[in-house]
Amino acid sequence: MTEIDKQGRNLSTTVWTQLDRKAGAITELTIRQLRNRISTWVVLGVGVLLISLLLVFYIDSIRDEFEPYDNDGDSEDWDNDGYPLGQENIYGTSDYDEFNFPGSSEYIYQGDIDWNDQPRTHEGNHTWYYAWGYFNPIWIDVNASNPFIYNYDWIDWSLGDYFCEEEGLGSDPFERGPNGYYGFENSNIDRNYCQFENGTYIMFGAAFSGEGEFFVEPGWNTEWGYVTESFFVEKHPKSMYIDEDDIDWDGTSVSSSQGFDDDGDCLKDDYLVESTPSDSNRNGIYCDVQWTYDQYGNLISIRADSNVDEDPDDSRHIGESSHRTFIIGTGKIAFVMLLGLFLPLFLALGLVRDESENGTLHYLLSKPIHRGEFILYRLLGYLAIVVSYTVILTFIIAFITSIIGPGESIIRLSDYPVWMGISLSTILVLIAYGSVFNTVGLVLPRYGVYLCILFGVWEFLMGLFTITIPSSDITMLSISHWAIQIIDATVMIAWSDTPLMQQQADAFGLETGISFFWHPPVHTLGTGSPFVALIISVVFILIFSLGMILIGQLIFRKKEIM
Amino acid sequence: MSDDIKVPSVLVENVSKWYGQVIGINDVSLAIEGGVTGILGPNGAGKSTLFKLLMGRIKPNQGSVKLFGIDPWEDTSPYRRIGYVSESERLYDWMTGQDFVSTLARLHGMTRNEADSRAEHVLEFVGLYDVRHKEIGKYSKGMRQRVKIAHALVHDPDLIILDEPLHGCDPIARTSIMNVIKELGNQGKTVLVSSHILEEIERITEQIVILHNGRLLALGNIYAIRDLLDKHPHRIMITTEEPRKLANAFIGEEPIYGVRFPEEGKLEIQTNDLSAAHSVLPRVIVESEVKVSRIDNPDDNLESLLEYLIGG
User: Fold this and answer.
1) Of the N and C termini of chain B, which has fewer Cβ atoms inside 10 Å?
2) What are phi and psi of A487, to 5 degrees?
3) Contact A488/A518 with Cβ under 8 angstroms?
4) Domain-by-domain residue ranges, chain A?
5) A291 compared with A367, residue with greater pLDDT
6) Model-wide pTM > 0.95
7) Span B71-78, mean pLDDT?
8) Which of B57, B86, B101, B107 to probe by mutation at the A interface, max A CB count within 10 Å?
9) Cα–Cα distance between A170 and A182 in angstroms, integer?
10) Alpha carbon distance A257, A80 (integer Å)
11) Tens digit of pLDDT for each residue in A158-170?
């Protein structure tokens, strides 16, 4: 069966199909030549090694980060009373005193007489605290144990009665005596009370329980309250205080008060003492997280009250964020900046130069092929190898990380668009650098490699610069800048919550490097759309590459080949 | 096949090419159509420069080069009808002969199958059919030359340009390549063969072009040149311990008209007919029972012939 075109020619031999065959032949020859060179396999092997090392590092580190981690340290039980810090925080007890724990008796303040208050007597059944003055008791509890934690002024009744008359009480007991003690002239006496024979006590800053009338000596003070009954509180396991207060966000993108104190250590509902919950972000709402967005819906800040959303689910936040950091970092540095530079340096620089130096160029140029076409087909052969290599390598690393990566699903499908972006970016870089190096090899057969290395160093530095400060203008003069933009844009498209994750990481102290390795795309022409940045970057690199190929073709067409 | 039958295959008009101060080709004009033409000249005469101009590798400083009426520097289309064997000895050593020829055939727009069968055909023609699946790296020098010729013939060209195709070949390969070239001429193709050895060209063709120092020295039938050559005195230098004894033995031999003792242990004999002299030489040496360590032909090169032609 033969197809005939309008001019009556056999369609299989029209100019276009012949061009096709020539392209195929040169491309194939180039591929076979590159396959036959050891340096090709060395550079491809080193690339595989680099990616494998990164994978090992990933597997090693990402597993640690999935382990639930006690971000706020409240699973510890410092005083060994069996109640972890988190539970003690909820009840307002101390984790540094084994006698003070949820359910233990507690002193509750009721009132006081200050140094300048009037009147200066108070009557009642209380536990008295820092009492300076005269107590006329109805009864006094001489059996009560000390309910106070840091107060050693509790009267130790076990020492027995102690009469003021016998102990040489000073004429004015509330003035310091010659030995610096209150009340007693005998410096050996360290008691903080005594009793008159009529039953009235003098208290020098003592603490005790009892009913009666208390007169506070002018210029001094007392405080009174009661001690609660102890009750049983079940001890929480330490594991309850790991990942116990996740970041709560309802998905809205309007400035609002969000967040919830899941574990109750900010709200303090179970406190026995009346206590004000935290409002450290000063938005007038206790125990919340204030999320602030600008008019375009971009998150500006997250400010949390203390002890709110402070111990998020690690596999969800740190794990996810480290996973993304790994992919972005690998894409930018390993793929774009290392493979993107070294593959063309080894494979593209000599595409035409080596043929010319080997003296085999004659075979190819004595065929009816335009020299410009020749360059193009050589580049196609080079691209066939490096593009398939990049695609396969990206797919392998994408597949492995998407399976062992964090998340509930068996395979993380959302990673694949990002890997495709990385692949696309690397391929474009390979085209751009390949055409530059090939052209340099043509113009400067001998010293071109040094120029290429200089160019590579520039591209590498601009790449690093772009990763840290993508908005700097000078980096726009490099290919790596635009290639990194492509990755930034695809991340924005595939994982649109990455800026949120960065904010959360910064606001809640989850350091994973995501804020270092990723920034929203810059070149959106003011639209903020990552698609615009993606298209602009792709077009820029393609135009640059085409320009470079054209220059190479022009030079090669005018070059005399000896 | 050729619509432009009136246009000569090769047309070179007043072409000059220089590399800086060095002149490669100086005001050369020639037109070649049909049959085998030998391009003769010593090393550096401009043969390779002429071929590079024909193959569009370099651009003439003056004059014009046309292949089938088209300037090869501007347009590669004449190469559809041209096969070129360069003087470069480098090949893709990792390829088999079949692979090499068929890959290059595809650059003419042939399909893979066409290219394969054409490659087999030309490899058979140059006598490499049996080794076509061997790697070129394992080929002998003569086989390498022949595979180069095969690639140039694969698209059945009308004009074949061979740059020193016999260079470095052993006598058997040389004969085989010469036969291939003669056969191409018999098929009515235009063939250009360069060489710096007159004897080689003489065995292939009668039609020659002589280049010297970049200039076209002579163009025409080889017999005209031969006549000049016969008058050209030749010297044969013999290194021996007893030059005088050997000189006596030579006296009276027909082709030899004089002897000389240029230095200790050397004998120079003079002749007008080099081949006749060479045919008597072994017999005389054996009969005289003189030990000979070395025989040189200081004039048996094109350079001295051309010097003679110019000077003469």
Assistant:
1) N
2) -65, -45
3) yes
4) 21-67+314-558, 107-227
5) A367
6) no
7) 90
8) B107
9) 8
10) 37
11) 877 788 877 777 7
Per-residue DSSP letter, A559:
-
| Spatial distance between the Cα atoms of A262 and A248, rounded to a whole number of angstroms | 9
On whether the CB atoms of residues A184 and A138 are closer than 8 A, the answer is no
Angle formed at CA A133 by CA A131 and CA A139, multiple of 5 degrees: 75
pLDDT (tens digit, 9 = 90+) per residue, A120-174? 899 999 999 888 899 999 999 888 777 776 667 888 888 777 888 777 777 777 8
Chain A residues whose beta carbon lies within 8 Å of the beta carbon of residue B151? 363
State the alpha helices, DSSP H only, in A318-444.
320-329, 340-347, 353-358, 361-365, 371-404, 415-443
Asked if A220 contacts A132 with a C-beta cutoff of 8 angstroms, the reply is yes
Chain B interface includes A354 (CB < 8 A): no
- For the record, the structure tokens of A381 come out as 């052969």
**What is the full DSSP assignment across A226-286?**
EEPPP---PPPPGGGGSS-BPPP--S--SSEEE---TTSTTT-TT-SS--PPP-TT-SS-S
- The residue type of A529 is S
- Per-residue confidence at B1, pLDDT binned at 50, 70, 90? very low
- Pairwise CA distance, residues A245 & A74, whole Å: 11
CB contact under 8 A, A363 and B94: no
Please enumerate in sequence order all residues whose Cβ is within 8 A of that of B282, keeping only pairs 6 or more positions apart, or say none: none
Give the mean model confidence (pLDDT) for residues B273-292. Answer: 82
CA torsion A15-A17-A18-A23 (nearest 10°) is 120
Residue B259 has phi, psi (to 5 degrees) of -130, 160
Spatial distance between the Cα atoms of A520 and A469, rounded to a whole number of angstroms: 11
- Give the Cα separation of A107 and A229 in Å (integer): 10
In this predicted model, what pLDDT tens digit does every residue of B229-265 receive, in sequence order?
666 677 888 888 888 888 888 887 877 888 888 888 8
Query: Can you read off the two tokens belonging to residue A125?
Result: 């059944």
Verify whether the Cβ–Cβ distance B111 to A12 is below 8 Å. Answer: yes
Q: Which pair of tokens denotes residue B213?
A: 């120092």
Q: How far is CA A489 from CA A240, A301, A310, A495, B85, in A?
A: 40, 22, 31, 10, 54
pLDDT value at residue A40: 93
**Chain B positions in Cβ-Cβ contact with residue A17 (cut-off 8 Å):** 109
CA A134/CA A129 separation, integer angstroms: 13
CA separation, residue B74 to residues B17, B56, B59 (Å): 17, 8, 9
Q: Considering only CA atoms, which of A425, A418, A424, A520 is closest in space to residue A479?
A: A425
Gap between the Cα atoms of B101 and B123, Å rounded = 8
ipTM: 0.77
Does the domain at residues B10-226 carry the CATH identifier 2.60.40.10? no
The CATH number given to B232-311 is 3.30.70.100
Calculate mean pLDDT across residues A282-291: 83
Nearest to A366 among B84, B106, B110 (CB): B84
From chain A, the residues in CB contact with B92 under 8 A are 33, 360
Of A465, A516, A518, the residue nearest A489 (C-alpha): A518
What is the per-residue pLDDT across A44-74, written as a single tens digit (0 to 9) for each? Answer: 999 999 999 999 999 888 766 667 778 788 8
A–B: how many Cβ contacts below 8 A? Answer: 80
Question: Which residues neighbour A419 within 8 Å (Cβ) at sequence distance 6 or greater?
Answer: A327, A331, A394, A395, A397, A398
In chain B, where are the structural domains located? 10-226, 232-311
Q: Which is more confidently placed, A180 or B172?
A: B172
User: CA separation (Å) from A457 to A206, A341, A451, A471, B307?
Assistant: 78, 9, 10, 20, 59
Q: Which amino acid is at A371?
A: R
- Is the pLDDT at A1 greater than 50? The verdict is no
* Closest residue of chain B to A560, computed from CA coordinates: B58
**A357 token code pair:** 């130096």
- At residue A2 the predicted structure's pLDDT band, cuts being 50, 70 and 90, is very low
